[in-house]
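Throughout our pipeline, every protein is held as a single compact record rather than as scattered files. The record that follows is passed on verbatim for readers who wish to inspect the format.
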Amino acid sequence: MDRPKGGDKLQLLLVDTAAEEALEVVKTILNKQIKTSLKDTAVLYRTNAQSRAFEEQLRRQSLPYQIVGGVSLYQRKEIKDIMAYLKLIVNTKDDVAFERTINYPKRGIGAKTVTDIAIIARRETISMYDVVQKIDDYPEFGARAKRIKPFAALIEKYRTEKKTMAIDLMTQDLVEDINLIEELRNEDKIIGQTKIENIEAFIEGVAEYVKNNVDAALESYLAEISLFTDLDAYKEIDDKVTLMTLHAAKGLEYDTVFMVGLEEGLFPLGKATMDPMALEEERRLFYVGATRARKQLYLSSATTRHRFGEVESIPSRFIKEVPSELIEKKDRRHNRRYGSNAHSGAPAQQTFFNRKPAMATSQPQGVHYEFEENEIMQVGRIVQHPTFGRGRIVKADGMGESLRLEIMFSGLGLKKILAKYAKLKIVG
């Protein structure tokens, strides 16, 4: 396509964390509010899970917003399930939270058992959790008591741990303890992965709360996020920011667009980097997002994101493909591990921004980040482990010493491994 003449340059925002990305974006929206109405402003992201940080920052600044083509992170079932566990840990008299968690994930506790617990609770004017704590006092449960006791033990474990353990670590342990990730994968592999990403985003939010609040307590955290769980107050307001995925943005246009989360593994998605056709579809989606902006386009990338633990991210190749003369960079990073240098003689990859005839010999210079696009430990590689034998890498998070791998080993199933300790040998 022909390059635009005149007009504002693309604004490239580089930050350290996903939280800082949301903070900077919302600050920019506030500063532009005099010239650009909120209804003419959109924040576009690749996955639904990314909405969380922006929702919280918009709430803190009392800026109304809507989520198009999706729901608030805190309204999603998997998040409500985790929150129910946390609420019950804080308040064992919360019967709503009890009923939501007693048999999820499934423990073989049927509806009749839950009804029987409720009947006893009403009769004795106690909570349903009080009933399960003294389940042996009720002989009518018989063998069913054996399936109920582990649940009470689980809740008591975390009621004790919340007094001394950081609540983000406690939440992560809880998710692992109840085997929620495997439950979601077994329910539906595709939708389950989206739900897992939402859980990662939720835990990231807990970690941010701990980081920003000395002596952060679970009770105070639940009180704060209760402010983020209701969008009804914004229903009657017309002037509000739009949050949505790039897929939902097709056909829509806004004066100001923020395209966020431009990092390898997120946009483009990690699995797309192994498939040329899928990668081209991601590139096309980037172009769709870029052309939603009528007047001004902002691109942003964070150095670290939460993937069940903080991991480093690499700026997206799509940023590199934008000609440098179209970009004005704002680098807010404290740790500038990835520099922004011009291409060192290598021709830029053909993109939607620099289409040229086949015989062209020169290519425009773009923003370049020093990273290896052909990383050795890629998804799909076959590796040999000294103990587990041969397996295929199915997921890779982080990089360098923080690289974590999920490997499907023949006859053993899925193993999660920290690469620097694994002594892996690539065999295919």
Notes: The longest strand covers residues 293-306. The chain has three domains: 10-72+231-331, 76-208, 382-426. Residues 382-426 form one domain.
